[in-house]
Write a structure and sequence with these properties.
Layout: H1 15-27, H2 32-46
Helix pairs in contact: 1-2
Length: 66
Amino acid sequence: MAPSPKKAFPLRIEPGLWHALERSAAADFRSVNAQIEVLLREALARRGLKVAPPELRKRGRPAKGE
């Protein structure tokens, strides 16, 4: 398996904010990590900073022979 192109980053976050992120992520059917990425992209876009769209990865099982 290829290494993840994403940067790992430890984040300290207060419990109340974490719980709000969990609720928001669940409402959008995302993981908390994915929700944080979406919220950061939205905040940067509001500030006028362009961020390249995330690399789309194939989902599901690999086809036979891959």
